[in-house]
C-alpha cells in the first residue's frame, strides 16, 4: 500500500504543470481493482493527504481524501483484474474521476463559497467545476487505457506451453 501511495503521490507531482491532468486517480483505481476496496480507499485517501504536502493543505484536503478514497473503494467493488478490458476500465475510471471525485470535491467549493444555499447557486458552482472534472476524468481514462491493464508476457506463455508438453510426454 505504501508503494502504491508513493506512486500516486509522485504521479500527481510529475504532472504539476498541466492542470487537472494527473494519473493519481488511475493509480488509485488500479490499486482498488487489484488489492480490494479497503486497500483502494487507503491508497486514495493517503495519496490525497500526502500529495497535498507538495500542493498545499487546506480545507479542501479532507474532501479530496474522501473523494479519492471513494474512487478506490468503488473501483475495488466494481472491477476485478482480468475480467474487464482496457476500454471498460477507462469508462469506469472516467465515471469515477468525473462524477464521484467531482461531486465530493466540488462540494467543498460549495461549502466554502456559497453563502445563500439555493439550487441555482449550488448548480453554478458545480457547472463552473465541470470542465475541470471532465479533463480530470478524461486524463484518468487515457492513463488507464495506456497503463491500467497488464500486458501478456510471451515468456510466461512459452514457459507454460513447454511445461504442458513435458507433462503430456
What count of helical segments does DSSP give?
A: 7
Q: Which ranges are low-confidence, i.e. pLDDT below 50, for 5 or more consecutive residues?
A: none
Instruction: Tell me how many strands there are.
Output: 0
Largest sheet: none
Q: Beta-strand percentage?
A: under 5%
Rounded mean pLDDT score: 89
- The residue fraction in helices comes out at over 70%
Termini separation comes to: 44 Å
Q: What radius of gyration results from the CA coordinates? A: 19 Å
What is the structural class? mainly alpha
The succession of helices and strands, N to C, reads: HHHHHHH
Q: What's the shape? A: globular
SSE order and pairing:
Layout: H1 2-14, H2 24-35, H3 37-55, H4 61-78, H5 86-113, H6 119-147, H7 154-168
Helix pairs in contact: 1-2, 1-3, 2-3, 2-4, 2-6, 3-4, 4-5, 5-6
Give an account of the 3D structure.
With 169 residues, this protein is mainly alpha-helical. The protein is built from seven helices and no strands. The chain has helices at 2-14, 24-35, 37-55, 61-78, 86-113, 119-147, 154-168. Helix 2 (24-35) crosses helix 4, helix 3 packs antiparallel against helix 4 and helix 5 packs antiparallel against helix 6. The longest helix is centred in the C-terminal third of the chain and has 29 residues, at 119-147. It is globular. 38% of the residues are buried. The mean pLDDT is 89.
Give a brief description.
This protein is an all-alpha fold and 169 residues long. It contains seven helices and no strands. The mean pLDDT is 89.
Amino acid at each position: 500500500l505504501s508503494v502504491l501511495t508513493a506512486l500516486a503521490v509522485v504521479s500527481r507531482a510529475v504532472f504539476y504543470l498541466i492542470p487537472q491532468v494527473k494519473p493519481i486517480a488511475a493509480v488509485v483505481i488500479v490499486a482498488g481493482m487489484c488489492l480490494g476496496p479497503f486497500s483502494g480507499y487507503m491508497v486514495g485517501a493517503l495519496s490525497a493527504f500526502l500529495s497535498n504536502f507538495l500542493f498545499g493543505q487546506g480545507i479542501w484536503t479532507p474532501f479530496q481524501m474522501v473523494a479519492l478514497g471513494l474512487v478506490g473503494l468503488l473501483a475495488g467493488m466494481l472491477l476485478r483484474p482480468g475480467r474487464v478490458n482496457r476500454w471498460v476500465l477507462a469508462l469506469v475510471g472516467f465515471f469515477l474521476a468525473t462524477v464521484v471525485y467531482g461531486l465530493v470535491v466540488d462540494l467543498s467549493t460549495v461549502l466554502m463559497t456559497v453563502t445563500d444555499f439555493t439550487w441555482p447557486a449550488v448548480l453554478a458552482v458545480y457547472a463552473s467545476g465541470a470542465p475541470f472534472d471532465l479533463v480530470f476524468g478524461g486524463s484518468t481514462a487515457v492513463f488507464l487505457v495506456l497503463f491500467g491493464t497488464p500486458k501478456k508476457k510471451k515468456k510466461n506463455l512459452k514457459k507454460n506451453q513447454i511445461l504442458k508438453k513435458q507433462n503430456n510426454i
